[in-house]
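fyi for ur records
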Amino acid sequence: MMRSFPLLLAVLLLTGTGVRAAAAVNQDDQARTVVHILDYVSVDYPVFVKNGEVLDAGEYAEQQEFAQQVVVLLEALPRMEGAPDLLAEARKLQARIAEKADGLDVAALAKALRAEVITAYGVAVAPKQLPDLAAGNALYIAHCGTCHGATGRGDGPQAMGMEPAPRDFTDTAAMNVRSLFGLYNTISLGVEGTPMLAYSGLSEGERWALAFHTAGIHASKEDVERGAKLWKKGTGADRFTDLRALVTATPNEAREAGGKDHEAVLAFLVAHPEAVRAAAPAPLAITRDHLDKTLTAYRRGDRGQARHFAISAYLEGFELIEAGLDNVDPDLRKQTEREMMSLRSVIADNAPADTVAARIATINTLLDRVDAKLSGDALSSTAAFISSLIILLREGLEALLVLAAIIAFVVKTGRKDALPYIHAGWIGAVVLGIGTWFVASHLISISGASREMTEGFTALLAVVMLLYVGYWLHNRSNSKAWQTFVKGHVMAALSKRTLWAMAGIAFLAVYREFFEVILFYETLLGQVGPNGQQAVMMGIVVAAVLLVLLGTAILKFSVRLPIGPFFSVTAGLLALMAVVFAGNGIAALQEAGVLKATFVKFINVPVLGIHATAQGLIMQGIVLALVIAGALVGRHRMRVLAAK
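which gave:
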């Protein structure tokens, strides 16, 4: 079963002109060719040479030829600064093959050299984007089925009499030694001396899609389903951290590293590569890793770095599973969150390293409990539905109350021409929120600290605008004051600062939560698995309907009120939301590490922005004082107006 390297290159090498020809080839292509050859050696040599005995003389000669080609190609490639002596290692590999060394020994040498070549020359070994598995199936039918068969057994209508026979992709033993990257190279470069041609006419993405499809043919449905459950528990998350780690691993390597569980996880990820990007790595794994880094940095005296990792342990990991944990054990969520916030205070107080270590040990114990709560099978459909419902209701209620108040105002005052501005504000927030999520997921990394800072500062800015609009409304709650205003310049007033303030509030109220809501739903979808995704979507739909109904009820009730009570109720609602936003804004900045969190004995009511920290309560007290002062000033102005 001779599978010589592309014939032209082999002839040039064997006739002594290989160095000159290779020098003319693009460096990237040369390096990729070396990787391709080494991949074949690592897979095929152990099959034909065992215990120093050659089982197939023709195949053994081919392995010697491959080893010679690697040496010649590396001689032509420039030496990369800082890289190992690749040429010396290639000659060692060549010598071991000449000695008929044990197959596993030679395979290990070939794999190690392959990895060093990839690193030294920056060979791209992973797809630039997620492969389209549906396209891979269509491509297989169009280009491969006639030889390899519809089910991949190598029994296609053109397979009769082929020498060698087409690869049987259902042969588990043969496929277990092949990586996705190896399959991609075979599809890209072909196998000279066989009917397997190079599919260079296909795009890179199409070749990767075809590689993923063929790699998944031999995996059983049971293994894929078991791998899905294991992946949700975090199994393999430390190994399959990105697409590169996925495509360079063989099933045998996965099993050697983590047993049959890792092999099953690999089978699942081959069938669902999007899971690598969506859950790489698992939130709790990030939390534990960053806590370890916190202690390491603190022990070496780098308090600033330790604080950074303590903050990211919460924001980049634990925060993303809070919604799911709230559904099963809200008290555990609160306790863990409080301990993680307290860790920052211990670091800021320059406590002994043993104290910091003890705090981290306490947190890890709590995380073990969290893991136990969440590490069962995927959440039930009912739990998934409730979690999804609560996320949108909780995060959307604040924005709804603000939007309902300002929409009711413009409807009540006959200024429906202002509605497009308000709608433009919240629609713009949705569009920008989706754009922010896309950028964070696909283009650049937006840290959890940046998320919380954005939420915190937009909340505080919204407080200022809410106080302004609320004060403006309160000053017109008296019917005489309103009539005087209407007779004056209502059109001019609303077309300037007040109108834009309302549009700005609509934008800020929605945007401050929208990006984070998307992240919560991404994490929840990962928790529930494929079977629970419909329940999550139903939760979103029901929550959206409830929000619409609630908003409609508020509008109908509000516009039926007399003008005086209407303005008072609307102004009071906006004042209340200003207090809530103030508390939540401070809490977000504390989570981001911008402000210190000093916990006090007080009630904890997040829905009202009360988070039982001195800083948050003081800010809410200041806003409340401003509201009261504004109300008193407004009442005084009304009395003056009434006396006229």
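Residues 396-643 form one domain. thats all i got for now
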